[in-house]
Amino acid sequence: MTDTPTQLFIGGAWVDAADGATMPVDDPATGEILCHVADAGPKDARLAEDAAVQAQEEWARTAPRVRSEILRRAYEIILERTDELAHLMTAEMGKPLAEARGEVAYAAEFFRWFSEEAVRIDGGLATLPDGRNRMLLSRRPVGPCLLITPWNFPLAMGTRKIGPAVAAGCTMVLKPAPQTPLSSLALAAILKEAGLPDGVLNVVTTSRAAEVCEPLLRGGQIRKLSFTGSTAVGRLLLAQCADTVVRTSMELGGNAPFIVFEDADLDKAVDGAMVAKMRNMGEACTAANRFFVHASVAEEFGRRLAERMGALVVGPGTRDGVDVGPLIDRTGRAKVEELVADAVERGARVLVGGRTPEGPGCYYPPTVLTDVAPDSRLMDTEIFGPVAAILTFDDEDEVVRRANDTPWGLVGYVFTEGLDRALRVSERLEAGMVGLNTGLVSNPAAPFGGVKQSGLGREGGRVGIDEYLEYQYLAVPVR
């Protein structure tokens, strides 16, 4: 912790907030304060914006190979510091060290992926149909970007946005979540060490998000917003972007259905459920939220899942043998408690868990509920906790209708051994991603994003860099 930056990163320099304000960073495992970091205000945001704007023209002209090699060096540094970054992430966010190490590898891979994409930005040349002009297409960086990241994957969500921006030639202002600013500050230090020019990346940590972000979006100099967070906040940001027609990519909330058909391999289904539900203590937008299990296998599936969930060890993420760390804060835990209580009041049975432990920290036990009423609040709320709610169904049309009966459409999971059914149901699901007989869909080489109120655009994969590029068409007369 002593070597971790705690100041703002603006124009390549570490600086205090203009008004001297700081904010605490808490350890969710104990409730104690880890440290204080600079708490940026509107003046700091303007300075960060100015630095990004001033650096944009020269950075856009930088050779793709140079941008590529900076990302590659940053990738290598991240991997070299896996343990250091994992401990930092566990301290501020709570996830077990094994998961934190996994996130470090996942985060680094975005830099390696986009280091390779940086040198593959292409255009085109063609004669137009009337034969009078040639069409020369080139791709150019969209310009200065505002990147807003969440607390649940504090390192990977930074690299997933910074990687394509650097590769495309865009400068940035990054605003991390106030709960987990340290991972972003460490990432800025790594990029500076890797050779990123001053002003290309600027990091403003703040507890005053509205005061910092709204003037940037309405000011006319920021040309792109990339946001990962709740749908409610996403709507507000989209409205703020309208005044100056800021380009947006939004990765918003989810309400993922997990469908288990009668012919599913239950071993695979339970394994998949453990990943889809318990990755990151359930604090993931891809987390399985609603478990629809065919009536003929629901009891057996519930028994096996409860057995597996009940065997998980809950405790501080730094302790050996711990599988489940604390939730991010007491507000997050209170939400989970209320959702479980509501489901039980409406008739749900608790197969395992369901009771908040006494003592310090923001812990909640892995919980399995069955006989969940369809009108329970957790059916239309993103739980963001280690709670699996099981409902039964009888036929395919019914479960597809119920799975799609939500304003969100980020991801769905389907478990069946029938190929025709697997493809048919996957195609009918209103989701940007589908896990077929697997509980994990995230991969830097795949396009991540949803439909409906789960967002706009895609991050990662070959299309991830497109969000940071504009086409320019040049008409050249044929002579």
TrEMBL record:
**UniProt name for this protein:** NAD-dependent succinate-semialdehyde dehydrogenase
Question: One Pfam family of this protein, by short name?
Answer: Aldedh
| Species in which this protein is naturally found | Streptomyces cynarae
Q: Which residues form a coiled coil?
A: none
Aldehyde dehydrogenase domain boundaries: 14-472
Homology family: Belongs to the aldehyde dehydrogenase family.
Q: Which InterPro entries match?
A: Ald_DH/histidinol_DH, Ald_DH_C, Ald_DH_CS_GLU, Ald_DH_N, Aldehyde_DH_dom, Aldehyde_DH_Superfamily
Source lineage: Bacteria, Bacillati, Actinomycetota, Actinomycetes, Kitasatosporales
Q: Does the keyword Repressor apply?
A: no
Which key words are in the record?
Answer: Oxidoreductase
